[in-house]
Amino acid sequence: MPDEENITPITTDSIVIGAGPCGLFCAFELGLLDMKCHFVDILDRPGGQCAELYPEKPIYDIPGYPEITGQELTDKLMEQIEPFHPTFHLNQMAEKLEKQDNGNWQLTTDTGTKLEAPVVVIAAGGGSFVPKKPPIPGIEDYEGTSVFYAVRKMEQFKDKKLVIVGGGDSALDWTLNLQPLAKELTLIHRRPEFRAHTDSVNKMRALADDGKINFQLGQIKELIGENGQLRAVIVEDGEKNRTEIECDCLLPFFGLTMKLGPIAGFGLNLHENLIPVDTEKFETSTPGIFAVGDINHYPGKLKLILSGFHEAALMSRQAFRYIYPDAKLKFEYTTSSSSLQEKLDIETARDKKRA
Q1: 3-state class of 249 per DSSP?
Q2: Are 239 and 254 in contact (CB under 8 A)?
Q3: Cα(119)–Cα(288) distance, integer angstroms
Q4: What is the pLDDT of residues 211-238, one digit of tens each?
Q5: Whether residue 142 has pLDDT greater than 90
Q6: In whole angstroms, what is the distance from residue 86 CA to residue 107 CA?
Q7: Which residues of 220-250 are buried (b: 16+ CB within 10 A; e: fewer)?
Q8: Whole-angstrom Cα distance, residue 197 to residue 208?
Q9: Would you report the helix, strand and coil content of the chain in percent, each value rounded to 5?
Q10: Cβ proximity of 122 and 291 under 8 Å
Q11: Which of 5, 28, 109, 202 has the fewest CB atoms within 10 Å around its CB?
């Protein structure tokens, strides 16, 4: 992480931790009330669980959509909030939250990004996605130096001998993206079938057929190296045959699990790893910090996306009072308010549909 003392915070109206559906809808409700927001999410794209865990799985209880997939819902929400131009800080974990002398909150991520705002909205679902680690003895000794569970900067893998492990979209996507940069690249999977998109699998197999990557069936059983730097990995196939593969960097993509993570250290009152809120404003016990979606707790709570949308709407009304303490909050309907329709750029949207 860069030297925190030399980083100038980015100031905004609100910080939203989590870019899942409920978090994304916060940008819409805040935007209607002239509040800008910055998102922080540990994933490499918006959508949260919907985009990461079930992008093609149908959801049946979103109002107005008898059936919609997780990715389709994410795409619709991104289209809906486009007029408000939210900023996304992806591949970053919200690590530290501190109250400032001016009354604002300063959020620091694990990459050193600093954001400052009067309002923080925690929309982190069940918590932060963290990588599932493969059961390889001694792997912790190499983490952060030659074992990586995410790709933050592609350039760090230039001219390296890479080994990627996994059979899902992340493993295949990074195989395709890193192949042009790598000195050598080997993809390892325990079986010939993949869980990734067919197009990605076909492209990977074409690279293997052309000799541009190596594909190895089996599982990594041993790491060889010293002082945190890998030199090779030992792969065992189904017949117990072992192969040594030279390796500078190992990238295991075994999926993600969810943990509350650093949010647990934000100083909020917790109830069984959930954040209690009131049901008038969806504010936590700490003024200026809100929680919407699956991360919050209150009597009668239903862990549904549609409930999170409702919570975002009420949250925004109280957030307005922090950001515009001297302004009068006026309630308007998007169907009849010309000022809201202007913010949503309704005429431009209609022109796009006609085209």
Answers
A1: strand
A2: no
A3: 5
A4: 999 999 999 999 999 999 999 999 999 8
A5: yes
A6: 17
A7: beebebeeeebebbbbeeeeeeeeebebbbb
A8: 17
A9: 30, 30, 40
A10: yes
A11: 5
The two three-digit tokens of residue 156, written as one number: 């760090």
Of 217, 247, 243, give the one whose Cα is nearest residue 232. 247
Burial 165-180 (b: 16+ CB within 10 A, else e): bbbbbbbbbbbbebbe
Which pair of structure tokens corresponds to residue 119? Answer: 């309002």
Distance CA 189, CA 61 (A): 36
Written as one letter, the residue type at 105 is W
What is this structure's pTM? 0.69
CA distances from 182 to 62, 144, 160, 227 (A): 43, 18, 5, 23
| Edge-to-edge strands, sheet with 242-246 | 219-226, 229-236, 242-246
Q: Which domains does the chain have, with CATH numbers?
A: 4-129+257-354 (3.50.50.60), 133-254 (3.50.50.60)
Distance, CA of 340 to chain centre = 29
Write the CB contacts of 76 (distance below 8 Å, at least 6 apart in sequence).
68
